[in-house]
Specification:
The structure holds 2 protein chains of 2 kinds. Chain A is mainly alpha-helical. In chain A, 69% of the residues lie in helices and 0% in strands. In chain A, helix 2 crosses helix 4 and helix 12 packs parallel to helix 14.
């Protein structure tokens, strides 16, 4: 069979290698041609689509503005908007419009805007998005559910919170917070990246639920990232009552990020009488922790604190020595006094006394 | 009989090598498509500007070495100062300029010398002074005046003076997109299971683009063919090559023009080496090596967004020097870290990325050149089947054009930098002409790089630039 096939090819002057080469050449050429044609078609389609969608967006925008200024009632607005939405793509645009615009409204207008969202049955579309296969559609659904407080989406959101998709998980958690469900914080698998924290913090600020959800909720979590975020929330929302709890966390737990964040929090909240736990922390062999402790001791400023700092002004590691000297300055000590009988480079003291070096 | 055997082995070697390269390009193209798609989907709904108001983002120090940049330095610094980021310091390192760059900076930004004590975390030449501005608007500006020591030495001085958890190294004459730092920081704060040690961004060619007030106003295709070919080459290299490698966490190079690094790890690695002209790649490889040896999960990420615009060489002479230097830099890195080659201890980096660079980046031009010489020789001696040769050439040519078309298509599908139909046609034409003019020149420059390397040349070579800030 094979031989016959090859014989037939040879009749036309084509051996098998030539055939492979010619086929490959044709394939590469056709792919190149296809790519060029698609590129131009895509550019043309995009241009056309942009114009159509921009016009539609302007139209909806005008109707919403009229509705919010009480020129149109909700049913009329619904009818007029629906008359313009005659394709899937336009429905997608409508959702995007609501998603992008909601942050511009506050107070009563926001409530009216949410009513319109419901009137247009976009809450159903939100739930559909959350149940779709594509994860980026789910992200959009989670964002809509959070922003418009779509209670109907609650069960879909709860099911999705163990997804492996990082971005989706961040959005799901943020949406759950916006729907006042904080239970995921206490689940064993829960951990938060810095990006999650940026996202959640923004929601907390925007939705003003920072008071409802304070850092203490997170401090008892098993995972270090959750505790770090809890500590951050404590100092970002000025939770002075959590100082003692933070102090005990940083002496009991050994994870470096927790200790460093705890020390940072104490700097913001209440560094006084810090020397009581400083000795314990100084035993940890880590220059970052040592430097943070020294900074705090400087802010503490008590005699006991100064005594601890003085032990480090001749440290072998110059960055630590610099921090120790700076801490003494902050504690109100005259640095030149320390040059008597000790070898301390005067340039270090000049560095510390020059406030320009500490401009942030 | 033996002659034929040797001949067959040689020819088979060249064919296998050529198909190996083609296959690797196809795999990288596929991987990059998957990675770009994932990135665009993931960031379609991410509002990176959330980070502008967030108090928990890491501090970033931008290090920009400058040598004899008096012509544009004040404008370039202003452009860098207006980058969007909450917690940022801009460290300009005057690397012993012979012109009046330093005086211009002092005057324009009301700088005053401080009594900064420069602790040497990594080695660098003597720092003569550290200057800060007394004007509150420029409080994030730090200017380091030091003795001349080259780019890597200047970057090391910057690392010593900076205070950020992350540092970005950039060329002072590059124009960055306003949100470029935010986008580069996101991978560092998004990842939980791995430590991100560095991120790189796409570099685009700025020749003939329109800039106003240090900002890109209009993207235009360069007027000269040499720059157009570089546009196409950068698209292939960044959008296909590096994105593909990033997908499998095998990226070894982050361009010296714009990259973001973990400062602590860079210090642990010893900073930039002074004895190489490829310090950017060398540092990334060294950082990866440390992580592999410590068995800490890590990643080097790459952002496909066009974040940095730079001026490409517009003359063959300067381009030749640049590629000569790149070749020598690659060779240095391969030599310094030869221990990693096919060493299972370094896992993917040692078993795949490093050998790829050895065979398909360093040796490819040499093998290509030898292949051409041997083919001509065999043709003259009558050993070559002409039909087979012509078919091979046509096949390779059509493949090269297809890869360029794919890069162009990817760019148009994602970022659509060249919207003008005329520009698109010109780029297509450039792809067809490139294998005849531009590519042979690159092969020749790489060969010269090899010759210079073995003859002990270590210099950078003068890079004359027109200055992109002048446009508009």
């Amino acid at each position: 069979m094979v031989e016959k096939w090859q014989d037939r090819l040879e009749m036309y002057g084509l051996d098998s290698l030539t055939l492979v080469f010619v086929t490959s050449f044709l394939f590469f050429s056709l792919v190149s041609l296809g790519l060029v044609l698609h590129m131009f078609y895509y550019g043309y389609r995009l241009k056309k689509r942009t114009v159509i969608l921009q016009n539609l967006r302007n139209g909806i925008s005008d109707l919403v503005a009229e509705y919010l200024s009480e020129g149109l009632d909700i049913k009329e607005t619904e009818k007029k908007i629906e008359a313009q939405i005659n394709s899937r793509e336009k429905k997608r645009l409508l959702l995007d419009f609501f998603l992008d615009t909601t942050d511009h409204f506050k107070g009563e207008n926001r409530t009216l805007f949410r009513d319109l969202f419901y009137q247009l049955k976009l809450h159903d579309a939100t739930v559909k998005l959350l149940k779709s296969r594509s994860w980026d559609k789910k992200v959009k659904g989670a964002k809509l559910a959070g922003k418009f407080k779509v209670d109907e989406a609650f069960s879909a959101l709860t099911k999705l919170q163990i997804t492996n998709r990082k971005l989706l998980r961040s959005e799901i958690r943020a949406a759950l917070l916006q729907l006042n469900d904080f239970r995921w914080i206490h689940r064993n698998f829960s951990r938060v990246s810095d990006w999650d924290q940026v996202l959640i913090l923004e929601k907390l600020k925007r939705e003003r639920i920072g008071n409802v959800l304070n850092g203490k909720e997170w401090l008892s979590s098993r995972h270090p990232s959750m505790v770090v975020f809890g500590i951050r929330l404590c100092y970002l929302f000025n939770d002075f009552e959590s100082v003692e709890q933070i102090k005990s966390i940083i002496t009991e737990r050994r994870e470096k990020p927790i200790i460093l964040e705890g020390l940072k929090a104490l700097k913001f909240l209440y560094p006084f009488e810090f020397h009581e736990i400083a000795e314990e922390l100084m035993k940890i062999d880590d220059s970052d922790i040592k430097n943070s402790v020294l900074e705090l001791l400087g802010l503490d400023g008590s005699l006991e604190a100064v005594e601890i700092i003085e032990r480090f002004i001749q440290a072998d590691y110059i960055p630590t020595q610099l921090v120790a000297l700076r801490a003494l300055k902050i504690a109100g000590r005259d640095l030149f006094k320390y040059t008597h009988g000790r070898y301390i480079d005067v340039k270090l003291i000049e560095h510390i006394n020059d406030e320009k070096n500490y401009i942030n | 009989m033996t002659d034929f055997l040797v001949l067959n082995i040689i020819i088979t070697f060249f064919i296998v090598f050529a198909f190996g390269i083609m296959l690797s390009y196809l795999i990288l193209a596929l991987l990059s498509y998957m990675e770009i798609r994932k990135y665009i989907h993931a960031f379609g709904y991410v509002k990176s500007n959330l980070m502008l108001s967030s108090p928990i983002v890491p501090r970033v120090s931008i290090l920009a070495p400058a040598y004899n940049e008096a012509l544009n330095i004040v404008a370039n610094v202003r452009s860098l100062l207006s980058l969007q980021y909450t917690d940022m310091e801009l460290v300009i390192i005057n690397d012993g300029s012979k012109d009046n760059s330093m005086d211009l900076l002092i005057e324009a930004y009301k700088l005053e010398k401080t009594s900064f004590y420069p602790y040497e975390y990594v080695s660098c030449k003597k720092i003569k002074g550290v200057y800060r501005s007394v004007h509150p608007s420029f409080s994030s500006l730090v200017v380091v005046d030091k003795e001349n020591g080259g780019k890597s030495d200047a970057l090391n001085a910057g690392i010593n003076v900076s205070s950020g958890k992350l540092f970005a190294c950039i060329d002072v004459d590059c124009i960055l997109e306003p949100n470029s730092i935010i986008k580069m920081v996101i991978p560092f704060i998004r990842e939980r299971s791995k430590k991100i040690i560095a991120t790189g961004g796409v570099i685009r060619i700025a020749n003939d683009c329109v800039f106003k007030g240090g900002r890109l106003q209009k993207v235009r295709l360069p007027n000269s063919w040499i720059c157009r070919w570089q546009v196409l080459e950068y698209m292939r290299s960044f959008l296909l090559g590096r994105m593909g490698w990033a997908r499998v966490n095998g990226l070894l190079l982050i361009s010296g023009a714009f990259g973001l690094f973990n400062r602590k790890l860079a210090i642990e690695a010893g900073g930039y080496r002074h004895d190489t002209v490829g310090e950017d790649m060398e540092l990334v490889v060294r950082m990866r090596r440390i992580m592999e040896e410590k068995r800490i999960p890590y990643a080097v990420k790459f952002i496909p967004d066009p974040l940095c615009w730079t001026e490409a060489p517009s003359s063959w002479k300067i381009l030749g020097r640049q590629r000569n230097r790149w070749t020598r830099g690659t060779m240095d890195t391969l030599k310094f870290h030869r221990k990693m080659l096919f060493n299972p201890r370094y896992r993917f980096t040692g078993m795949v990325s490093f050998p790829y660079w050895l065979f398909f980046e360093w040796l490819a031009p040499i093998i290509e050149f030898l292949g051409i010489i041997i083919t001509i020789l065999l043709l003259v001696l009558g050993y070559v089947n002409v039909k087979f040769l012509i078919l091979t050439i046509i096949l390779v040519y059509s493949f090269a054009v297809m890869i360029s078309m794919y890069a162009l298509w990817t760019d148009q599908r994602t970022y659509m930098q060249y919207k003008d139909r005329g520009d698109q046609w010109r780029l297509i034409l450039a792809a067809f002409l490139e294998p005849f003019i531009y590519h042979p020149f690159l092969v020749w420059s790489a060969l010269k790089g090899n010759i210079d390397y073995f003859s002990g040349k270590k210099s950078w070579g003068t890079m004359t630039r027109r200055g992109i800030a002048k446009n508009g």
